[in-house]
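Exercise 7.
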Amino acid sequence: MAVVNGDGPSLDWAALVPHTIHPVQVAIIEAMAWVGVPLSATMLKDVFDDADGHYLGIVSYHLSRLAEWGAVAKTGHRPRRGARETFYFLAPSMLRSGA
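Solution. The predicted structure, written as tokens, is:
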């Protein structure tokens, strides 16, 4: 158990972290690790079951948050239907060596 002690009460980070990351972010990371190639938000949405509520806007939002935090990295983009489709790859720091 990871506990931080200070002037106040102890904080159990191991118990806290699973509640602070969004389930869509977990699904994105797991899908990117499973697929193993750069993916766009549209491609990720297609990987997910529609019944899970992983709509394009939600996937795109959480993918951009993961990019801000360095969990995924932008690898490129291409024009698509008058917009720009951005591709991301799971950051090497997110992968365990030897796994």
